[in-house]
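Customer escalation, tier 2.

The customer says the design service returned an amino acid string that "doesn't look like it belongs to this structure." They asked us to rerun it and document both sides in this ticket. The original structure tokens are below, unchanged.
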């Protein structure tokens, strides 16, 4: 078992950040811990990295208690925000990290150049870190964590504060660089979990309230239907959709003629398509998709609290 957490609790004075959580993450698994800010995610990440001491309970990395050198050596940790020596360049920072981890010079140089290339930072290797934008800084933090080639990676808020393009690039980097590693992503952004993770764990007020497979959870909460139209949608079709008991939500984009439906029962999709055809709707495409992870998690967590 890569990460084992047993009754882990952390309090700051009277403020309880973690309330005795239990969690196991197998070696090579990808897991997202999803919850609002203040739920206890960063506290858990810092505990696993050995930067905090628990108030109660325990946790182990590959069987070694957190805080011990054997545990720390197996774990790569990316905090948010990541602290950098702003005057250094990315290449200097990664080289220093390699020295601190005792990596021989020739292997260290090959490794840091490979990381810079793989993460799209090679053209910035000689620039001062203070001049990097948010997306480059997050990918540099990932490179820094990967210098010692850890078996497991813990990433706190990988895309928080980034724009859509930089967020997508960071998620792609996580997927690519953790193919043979255990990954724990701690985030308040559902897309950070949906893209790289196979399992989602919901946390609220320091307590775990949800633990499910990402695809299993989506399947349990209906299906989204994207409907492309070749012309105007007849009012009759729109009225019948709104009255259909399986249609939980309907959204029309004012800039085009397309529709998006959310069905509570995926098995009703053929009936909905038949309804549209019989109402003379000019259906050009009818695509089934899982509903957004954020909506399904929010609905499930509300039922647990």
């Amino acid at each position: 078992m890569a990460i084992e957490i047993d009754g882990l609790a952390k309090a700051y004075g009277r403020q309880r950040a973690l309330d005795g959580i239990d969690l196991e993450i197998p070696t090579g698994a990808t897991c997202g811990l999803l919850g609002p800010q203040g739920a206890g995610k960063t506290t858990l990440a810092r505990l696993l990295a050995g930067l905090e001491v628990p108030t109660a309970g325990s946790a182990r990395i590959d069987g070694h208690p957190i805080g011990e050198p054997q545990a720390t050596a197996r774990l790569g940790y990316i905090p948010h925000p990541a602290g950098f020596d702003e005057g250094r360049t990315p290449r200097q920072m990664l080289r220093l990290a390699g020295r601190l981890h005792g990596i021989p010079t020739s292997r260290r140089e090959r490794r840091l150049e490979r990381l810079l290339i793989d993460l799209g930072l090679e053209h910035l290797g000689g620039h001062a870190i203070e001049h990097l934008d948010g997306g480059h800084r997050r990918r540099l933090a990932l490179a820094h964590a990967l210098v010692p080639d850890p078996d497991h990676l813990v990433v706190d808020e990988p895309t928080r504060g980034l724009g859509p393009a930089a967020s997508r690039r960071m998620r792609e980097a996580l997927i690519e660089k953790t193919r043979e590693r255990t990954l724990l992503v701690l985030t308040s952004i559902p897309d950070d979990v949906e893209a790289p993770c196979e399992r989602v764990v919901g946390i609220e007020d320091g307590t775990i309230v949800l633990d499910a497979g990402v695809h299993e959870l989506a399947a349990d909460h209906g299906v989204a239907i994207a409907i492309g139209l070749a012309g105007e949608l007849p009012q009759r079709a729109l009225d019948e959709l709104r009255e259909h008991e399986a249609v939980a939500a309907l959204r029309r984009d004012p800039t085009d003629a397309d529709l998006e439906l959310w069905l509570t029962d995926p098995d009703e999709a053929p009936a909905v398509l038949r309804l549209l055809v019989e109402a003379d709707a000019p259906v050009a495409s009818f695509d089934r998709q899982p509903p957004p992870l954020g909506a399904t998690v929010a609905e499930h967590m509300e039922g647990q609290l």
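Tier 2 assessment: The sequence is consistent with the input. The CA atoms of residues 218 and 292 lie 8 Å apart. The first strand starts at residue 3 and ends at 12. Sent an explanation to the customer and offered a walkthrough call.
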